[in-house]
Amino acid sequence: MVHILQHVPFEGIGSIGSWLSARGGNISHTRFFESSTLPKLQGLDLIIAMGGPMSVNDEASLSWLKTEKLFIREAVALGLPVVGICLGAQLIASALGARVYSNENKEIGWFEIEATPGTHGVFCFPNRTTVFHWHGETFDLPAGAVRLAKSAGCANQAFQIGDNVIGLQFHLETTAVSADSIITNCRQELVAGPYVQSESRIRAVRPETYTTINRLMSDVLSYVTRLPR
Question: Is the pTM of this model over 0.90?
Answer without folding.
Answer: yes
